[in-house]
Amino acid sequence: MNLLRKKTLDASRVSDGGKLNKTLGALDLTALGVGAIIGTGIFVMTGVAAAEHAGPALVLSFVIAALACVLSALCYAEFASTLPVSGSAYAYSYVAFGELLAWILGWDLVLEYGVAAAAVGSGWSGYFQGLLEGFGVHLPTALSGAYNADEGTFINLPAVVIILLISYLLTRGVKETARFNEVMVVIKIAVVLLFIFTGIFYVKPENWTPFMPFGFHGIMNGAATVFFAYIGFDALSTAAEEVKRPQRDLPIGIISSLAICTVLYIAVSLVLTGIVPYQSLNVSDPVSFALQFAGQDMIAGLISVGAITGITTVLLVMLFGLARLLFAISRDGLLPKALSSVNAKTHTPVRSTWMVGGVIAALTGFIPLDRLANLTSIGTLFAFFVVSLGVIVLRRTHPGLKRGFTVPWVPVIPLLSAAACAYLMYNLGKETWIGFFVWLVAGLAIYALYGYRSSQLNGDSNR
Predict the structure, then answer these.
(1) Which residues have CB under 8 Å from 390's CB, separation 6+?
(2) Please, are residues 346 and 371 in contact by the beta-carbon 8 Å criterion?
(3) pTM of the entire predicted model
(4) Which of 16, 118, 323, 405 has its CA 20 to 30 A from that of 371?
């Protein structure tokens, strides 16, 4: 039994399954990245992270999380420009470490994107219902939330509907999806800037004192928590096979989207904690709440609309990334081949897209997900950790390989990236680690019972 069998570089670049259409450019990728990153993190998690973990020092939590992401983004950019195929960290690990770790990482990414999409869908529903209530429209209690007998809820209908609608959009073609995303991204960036430039006039510097009420440990806990806000940029690498000039455009898209979003996160956290004392920010809509606190109710309403727009784009990119991931794993034989079929007209993996949409809709519709955000963070950090080490491995095993982008100061930068991710993982709670290990054990069972025997590499001497 060879659990460390690897894909060759040629086999990674030319796969036997369906082919995707190359239509995306650097601007499309940057918009996808901003679409994935600016959303739940800025409109929902900023308040909780400030109130429970970091206080006004939330800005430092975002900076630390961003630094860890920048290091990882450099590593992703090198891999994505060298191996422009679907599958993200899963595909990279197949070449660098072999099939077993590739499967573990692929299964980990299923957790990352799946839980993120479900949690974001639930958040979208909360904002949407709040908007309806502003117009005097109230959904029946049974249709307003995941199953909870005590509260009388049965299904989160708005979440189910939006996930299925986005799944339909994703099946229409990647260019159509990118155009829709770009429009939504422009709207939500405008709304974020509106908050910053309106709220800055209501900042009271005394609200920033004490700046570090929970100490350095609180800042690090905050960084581990808000890392959820940055998970979007790695989804760009799942689109690598649909990029016209991947060696040039993927590094631009990954790094530019991360830079734009980091600046916006820092500005929003400073203004937010300057308007409202951090103790009062433990609310589900902190950005809107801050403007209501300042007496700007009309603009607060616009912020709520922007939040819905922002969360919609996050949901779109998460579902997009998960569908492409399942497509890549299926094409390698580790999951049923039906998931890698591509529609001849739209050039999209329709079956994997609808499978993702159906499963995530069911999870969001019926299961409460309020405690699962940290599972997304640990899944993301683990993927970043492995990719960072993978850069070092590939530099040693394939030193002459042509790379569209190269990480400077190897192995220092990749080792710093891996160390930063490991430290942030360490700061996550025991419950999160238990859930993570249970998920990985389930994945190993699937690989043992199905994936190993069905793999494209099983008995194929050409790979």
Answers:
(1) 75, 79, 89, 92, 93, 96, 97
(2) no
(3) 0.85
(4) 323
